[in-house]
């Protein structure tokens, strides 16, 4: 078992990073690697080189190939991110745009159709939301975010769906309440990954 935790928040003192540290500790004895996209200065821009690689299904830029190697070592991927405009931050979306590409995450052709390639990976989501759960339910935000990521990305690439654990009201809660919400989310994800050890 090897978990890759991917975080996208430019503030190293953020709740995102606090959750990341808590999750890393909770996952012991599972091997854990952290990809802090902001600290690593990952370039999220989809360039002409990325476009050519996407169409060719190969000849990927060096930084993309490095991310492929990290993901190929992982049995579990956990995306830890603040919700921006009811979606993931541009940095994380750019990472997915550039890394989950044709020829590696899936293959698509007019002759054979879609062939997902990430069946060996389980993907978990840990979104950190500013609004309360009632707002997400009333307006369908959680459903929309889940559809976008779980169906549109995870299912499309053939990865198994893991657990999704939202932390709500991240800007409004007291320290004690935030701690309880973090505990619950970390426990949900870590228990799902530890369950894989017993299978």
TrEMBL record:
Q: Which UniProt keywords apply?
A: Oxidoreductase
Q: Cite a single GO MF annotation.
A: oxidoreductase activity
EC number(s) given by UniProt: 1.-.-.-, 1.6.99.-
One matching Pfam family: Flavodoxin_2
Q: What enzyme class is recorded for this protein?
A: oxidoreductase
Q: Which residues form the Flavodoxin-like fold domain?
A: 1-188
Q: Which family does it belong to?
A: Belongs to the NAD(P)H dehydrogenase (quinone) family.
**Name of the protein described by the UniProt record:** NAD(P)H-dependent oxidoreductase
Species per Swiss-Prot/TrEMBL record: Streptomyces plicatus
């Amino acid at each position: 078992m090897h978990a890759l935790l991917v975080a996208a928040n430019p503030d190293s003192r953020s709740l995102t990073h606090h959750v990341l540290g808590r999750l890393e500790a909770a996952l012991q004895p599972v091997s854990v690697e952290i990809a802090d996209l902001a600290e690593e200065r990952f370039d999220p821009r989809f360039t002409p080189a990325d476009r050519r690689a996407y169409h060719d299904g190969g000849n990927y830029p060096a930084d993309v190939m490095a991310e492929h190697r990290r993901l190929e070592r992982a049995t579990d991927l956990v995306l830890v991110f603040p919700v921006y405009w009811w979606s993931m931050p541009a940095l994380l979306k750019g990472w997915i745009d550039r890394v989950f590409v044709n020829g590696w995450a899936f293959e698509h052709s007019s002759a054979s159709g879609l062939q997902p390639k990430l069946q060996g990976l389980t993907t978990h989501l840990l979104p950190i939301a500013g609004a309360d759960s009632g707002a997400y339910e009333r307006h369908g935000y959680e459903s929309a975010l889940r559809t976008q990521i779980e169906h549109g990305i995870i299912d499309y690439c053939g990865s198994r769906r893991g657990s999704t654990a939202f932390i709500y009201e991240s800007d409004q809660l007291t320290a004690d309440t935030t701690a309880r919400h973090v505990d619950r989310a970390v426990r949900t994800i870590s228990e799902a990954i530890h369950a894989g050890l017993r299978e």
